[in-house]
Every structure is written in structure tokens, then in C-alpha cells.
Amino acid sequence: MAVADVATGIRTVNHWIAGRPLASEFGRSGEVWNPAIGEVQARVDFATAKEVDRAVESAKNAFSEWRATPLSRRAEILFKFRELVDANRRRIAESITSEHGKTLPDAMGEVARGLENVEFACGIPNLLKGGFSEQASRGIDVYQIRQPLGVVAGITPFNFPAMVPLWMFPNAIACGNTFVLKPSEKDPSPSVILAELMQRAGLPDGVLNVIQGDRAAVERLLEHPDIKAVSFVGSTPVAKYIYETATRHGKRVQALGGAKNHMLVLPDADIDMAADAAVSAACGSAGERCMAISAVVAVGAAADPLVDAIAERMARIKIGPGLESGNEMGPLINREHRDRVASYVENAPVEGATVAVDGRADPVCKRGGFFLGASLLDHVKPEMRCYRDEIFGPVLSVVRATSYTEALRLINDNPYGNGVAIFTRDGGAARQFQFDVEVGMVGINVPIPVPVSYYSFGGWKASLFGDLHIYGPEGVQFYTRAKVVSSRWPDPGTSKIDLGFPQSR
Ligand code: NAD
């Protein structure tokens, strides 16, 4: 929900608290850019600690009634929400494209993948079924139930402003929790659209709240005594900070961080297929995906033809504003980030790499928006900055390896472990790789192996802090706690005093 300032005509994206938009009372705000033209298009409220407290209070007040709401009613609301998101796909996608910059078809894809998580949450009556053991001891039955935690918070990144919130709140709410979402301040509008649609679906006021803001809002959420759990998705340094701070305050935390995803190409791979996949996975959403491929590891004879095939394809990518049809890649999120990404291309020859395609030379860079063409760096070595850092832009590095063993060691030595892909026609090699690789999500001839909603998403090592992955069955586990009940019905005939420790046999 946004209101336009009468004097400037510029809209302000507000919070959504207790079922309605709420403008910030304290005057802190930030700019929301349109990356395709490089201009400010809106302002967004930045919550103070007091406003965060209001959102948490609203969620807390809604909790006891919401957790008592029958599962079938919760599922009914989620079904209705599913229908509303489906009917509003384009509106949500346009809002994503306008604030993030990714192309409209890509944004439609984001909404579609988010919708799968809503569909999963619609199955909540089945998902919350517990186990039951009859006659665990004489006359005693034991069963487990899973109960919601209370008020839970979600803190989300700029690169999937609709999908990542949908990884979190549908499951959390279906499980009986109430939710406070703090979306990225860079593209805050899609979250408010989703909250509005949840309300139209019949969600009681206060069950879902959106608080806009920056670090100050996050800090308050992390220490707030009424927040029981925090789901975070963003960069690794912030993920680590969130994990350490929120666990210190006694909260359950899952904090998903950044990535450096490799694509291993064996000499027997279909080079055209591998090149298509590498370019799609490196340049889709201008490389601003946590599952983007940023390093191709080419083994032996695969390297030369692969570099040629990737370079030829990169030069053909159509770059321009995401709302203009036919464009395949949009701008980066803001000027600072575009310049930072370009600096890796500038620095690559200094470190000894070869610039096979220089995206800075693309004519699109002269447009007003935050555009940068796709770049290909060859002969990259593990100690180079362009290999070590998560660039988060359309820059693909090629590292040449002499063997599978050398390539595997490189991948396993990397501090990140989000996604990885292997391209080969050899089933045995692929199976060995799946066994060996220390990464949470693996693709076999699949470049972006984001799990479907009925599995769970999560990396290893510096790509995830916490124990449980996000969404899917692990999401349900994260948003509930188990209670085990041992029950006996009175049978006066067998009752006696027994001070011994209870035994089951
Ligand atoms: P970010 O870490 O800068 O911000 C994420 C969220 O944290 C935002 O809501 C932001 O307001 C807040 N935040 C930022 N700095 C903070 C601080 N110092 N203290 C407290 N809160 C802070 O991430 P981003 O730039 O929005 O998103 C890109 C990053 O997210 C990339 O590193 C990408 O790999 C990662 N990401 C990971 C996944 C995953 O599933 N592992 C998915 C999407 C994005």
C-alpha cells in the first residue's frame, strides 16, 4: 500500500500492521529506485523500534485466537490466498520488475515459484499429523503433537522480493504462528501487495504484519522478547550476525546466506547444452540470484570449446528495461552495486585472468539505468578476488582443471555450499559427484537446482547458519515445536503405589 505525497507526487510505501497500512510517525524513510531508468520512484518508511514493537504487539494479540483456529479454516484461507496470488500474478510481477529491475517474464517465474510454497502450505492439515503409539506401556499410549511457536519474524533480501517472503509466511501462518515480515528496503512493495491479498483471503488482522525499514528495524526484531524465531535470507556476513544475535536472545534461527555456485563441466558433456545452461544461470536476473552460477569449472578438453560457446551466447543477450518485451536481462539493483560488479571485470587482468567478454563495453551501459553487460573471465585462479567473492552480478568466471579430482577439491574447499551443478553424460560420474560434493543443493545437468516446494531449500557451510532448511517439510519443523504426550485412562482395578522409575515392559 502506498500513498502519494501531495506536494511531490511521489508515493511512500508504508508498513502493514494489524490489517491496514500504517505510515511511519517518526519521519525516517529511504529511497526506492527504478533501476531501469536510474531514478527514485518512491520512498519507503523506515521503522523505529517503537513501530516494530507495534507490529510485534499486533502479532502477539492475534496469536491465541489464530492458533486456536481449526486447521481446515487455516487451509481454506491459504487456498483463497493461492487463488488471489494466481489472479494477481502480473500485478505482483510488475511491482517486482519496477523496483528490482529483473525482466517481467523472470518476475512472473518468481511469483510462480512462490505460489508453489503457498500450495504446499495449503496441505497443512496433512503436514501437522503426528505419530501415535498405542500400548507403549500397559494401558499407556504415547503421541506427538506439533505446536506453533508464537510470533515469528522474517527478514528478506532484495533479489526475490515476493518469492522469499512466500518461502516463509505461508508455512509459518499455516502452522498457527503469527508473523512480522521485514522485507528489503530496496524493493518493499511486493510484500505489501501480498499482505493485502492475505487480508482479502480472510486472514484475521494482526496475523501477518509487514514492517518496512533498515538495520534499526532488524535490530529491534532480534532482541524483542516476544519474537520466538527468526527466518533470514540475505548475505553471509549479515546471516552470521543475525544467527549469533538472535540465538543469543534465545530465539530459534535459520539464516540463509550468500553463495559461490560452481558448474562442473566434464569433457564428455554436451558443450552446447552446458553453454546454454551456464549463460542462463549466470546472467538470469543479471546474476542477482543466490543460486546463480558464478564459476564454471571446465575439466580438460571441455575448456576451450566451452569458453567459445559461452562467449558467443553472451554477446547475443538482449539487455534493457525489464518491462520492455523481448529483453532477456535487466539492470542491476542500484548504481553502487553495478559499479562494484564492474570493478571485478576491471581488476581481473591485474590478477592474471583474461577478460573474454567485457560487459562494460556493452552499449546498454550508456543508458540512464543501472545496466551492465554480461562478462566472461577466463583462466581464473582460486586466489583471485573475482573467484573468492560473491559478485552477485552478470560476471562468469571459468576455472580450468585437469581432472575431476582437482575440480571436486576446488568446489569442496570453497567456504560457500549453496548450489552446484555437474554437466556430463556419464551417470556414474554424476552419481559419484552427488556422493562427494559438500554442497546443499545439487543439479545433474540442471544448472539452478532450486528444490520444489515439497522438499526444503538450504545450503551448507557459509550459505546457512542454523539446523533446518527453509520451506517444505523442514519449514514446518522450523515453525513448530514438538510435544510428546503419554496418556493413561483411569482403571481403578490396576491402580497401586509404585515408587520405582516407570518402565515400559
Ligand atoms: P543483505 O544481507 O544486504 O540484506 C538482507 C536483509 O537484511 C534486508 O532486509 C536488509 O535490510 C537487512 N540488513 C542488511 N544489512 C543489515 C545489517 N547490517 N544488520 C541487520 N540487517 C541488515 O542482502 P541483499 O543484498 O538484500 O541480498 C543479496 C544477498 O542475499 C546475496 O548475498 C545472496 O546470495 C543472498 N541470498 C541468499 C539466498 C539463499 O537462499 N541462500 C536467497 C536469496 C539471496
Structure report:
- 37% of the residues lie in helices and 23% in strands.
- It is an alpha/beta fold and 505 residues long.
- It has a seven-stranded mixed β-sheet with strand order 16-17-18-15-14-20-21, with helices on both faces. It has a six-stranded mixed β-sheet with strand order 11-10-9-12-13-23, with helices on both faces. Strands 1-2-6-5 form a four-stranded mixed β-sheet, with helices on one face.
- Helix 1 (49-67) crosses helix 8 (215-223), helix 3 packs antiparallel against helix 7 (189-200) and helix 10 (271-283) packs across helix 11.
- It starts with a strand and ends in a 17-residue tail after the last strand.
- Nicotinamide-adenine-dinucleotide is lined by residues 155-160, 164, 182, 184-185, 214-215, 218, 233-235, 238, 241, 256-259, 290, 390, 392, 418, 459, 463.
Topology of this structure?
Blueprint: E1 2-4, E2 11-13, E3 15-17, E4 20-22, E5 29-34, E6 39-45, H1 49-67, H2 71-87, H3 89-100, H4 104-121, H5 124-127, E7 132-137, E8 140-148, E9 151-155, H6 163-174, E10 178-182, H7 189-200, E11 208-210, H8 215-223, E12 227-233, H9 236-248, E13 252-256, E14 261-265, H10 271-283, E15 293-299, H11 303-314, H12 335-351, E16 354-357, E17 375-378, H13 385-388, E18 395-401, H14 404-413, E19 416-417, E20 419-423, H15 427-436, E21 441-444, E22 460-461, E23 464-465, H16 472-478, E24 480-488
Parallel strand pairs: 2-6, 9-10, 9-12, 10-11, 12-13, 14-15, 14-20, 15-18, 17-18, 20-21
Antiparallel strand pairs: 1-2, 3-4, 5-6, 7-8, 8-24, 13-23, 16-17, 19-22
Helix pairs in contact: 1-8, 2-4, 2-7, 3-4, 3-7, 4-6, 10-11
This protein binds nicotinamide-adenine-dinucleotide.
Nicotinamide-adenine-dinucleotide is lined by residues 155-160, 164, 182, 184-185, 214-215, 218, 233-235, 238, 241, 256-259, 290, 390, 392, 418, 459, 463.
